[in-house]
Amino acid sequence: MTAFPTSHLIVGTIFVLCIATTVVGALIAALTARIIRSVCGLMICCIGLAGLYYFLHSPFLALMEILIYVGAVCVTIVFAVMLAEPEETVRDENRGATLLWGGVALVVSAAIFWGLWHLGVRQDWTAPVTRVNDGSVSAIGKSLLTTYSMAFELISLALLVAIIGALAIARTGRTKP
Amino acid sequence: MNPTPLSEQPDIYFTVAALLLTIGIFGLLRRRTLIGMLISGELIFSAASLNLMAFNRFRAPDPVVGQIFVLFIMGLAAAEIAIALSIIIAVYRNYRSVKTRELSELNG
Predict the structure, then answer these.
(1) How far apart are CA A34 and CA A36, in angstroms?
(2) ipTM score assigned to the predicted complex
(3) HSE of A23 in the Cβ direction (CA atoms, 13 Å)?
(4) pLDDT digits (tens, 9 = 90+) for A11-46
């Protein structure tokens, strides 16, 4: 069986496109002044990240990323933006101090990037000799119901407590005059 | 014989994850509203997830563990978002603002 002649080129292009989507979405999320554009940037970033998960041989997590982040988290943040209208205005602040703190933030984050990149790329990580299983969806399901069943139940409890807590917190102050 | 394709090189994933963490921390330091800081926190979560998945794919003998870990991270991030947004809305009701500079009073 022979592959389509330019298939590796197409796959490489899609991979680069996924990386570009992730990075550009993150940049939009962190740098734009309007908060609703920032939420849209987070959505774009999560779609690119789902593509990267697919390239990491995990279509299940790619689906979950789109379902949970784009479908639930971002939509919830959009609702909060509509309720709280957080507009960022830079004009009324001191320009010098803003630039100074932007520079400090840039230096700190660049130092963290350099350290993490050095650790991840320059380190001689050992590759595994054998794989226990193939990492497919059925293997994940078996693992969730045997080895990690306790954590699986606990996270459902955590989600329930989070829902009740969110309702309780958001409700206080409503009855006040 | 083709060289190793781009999507099979772990260094690229590590670099993208480090870049996501950097952008997240930069946004966290620079943002002035609570919701903006929350979005940057989500970027940091994504960076951690991508790093775990890359190590899971290329360096771990059991490829299921990382996927389940990232799944739990997603669930906890969803719970955290729900709690944090309800706190933000409660704060907005009291202060009529979610700018971090104006939230400088505590009331017991």
Answers:
(1) 6
(2) 0.89
(3) 15
(4) 889 999 999 999 999 999 998 888 899 999 999 999
Q: Model confidence over B49-103: pLDDT tens digits? A: 999 999 888 888 888 999 999 999 999 999 999 999 998 888 888 877 778 777 7
The CATH code of the domain that includes B13 is: 1.10.287.3510
Inside any domain, residue B47: yes
User: Which residues from A are below 8 Å from B46, CB to CB?
Assistant: 26, 45-46, 49, 69
Domain termination residue (choose one: A31, A64, A90): A90
Residues 6+ apart with CB under 8 A from B9: none
Asked whether the beta carbons of residue B63 and residue A38 sit closer than 8 angstroms, the reply is no
Is the pTM above the cut of 0.80? yes
Residue B17 near chain A (CB below 8 Å): yes
